[in-house]
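URGENT: need a sanity check before tomorrow's submission.

F., can you look over the PTS EIIB type-3 domain-containing protein record below? I want to be sure the sequence and structure line up before it goes out.
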Amino acid sequence: MRILLCCKAGVTSNMFAAALKDEASKKGLEVLVWAAAETAVEYSINQADIVLVTPQLKSSLSKFEDLADGETPVLLISDDDFTQFNAEKVLKEALDAKKK
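Structure tokens as predicted:
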């Protein structure tokens, strides 16, 4: 599974992407996770199986949904999950959304 993390280009989102990779690895899942700045998302969104949006970009959620192909789930990470680095919960939500 390929997960794109849309962010404002901060260091925190790269750290969160690493936490998601670690969580997937613990579960024995092959997951590619990368972070892209809001301005660069359009260049790699079509390569993603799921798109995660950081809370800072809440107002741009519909833009990412429009850029996605309609079959690619686009999920907003909650403030709490992002600030607490709850990668386990976010990964589970991503996997569940992809199964639908």
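My own read: The beta strands are 2-7, 32-37, 50-53, 74-76. The chain has a mean pLDDT of 92. If you see anything odd, call me.
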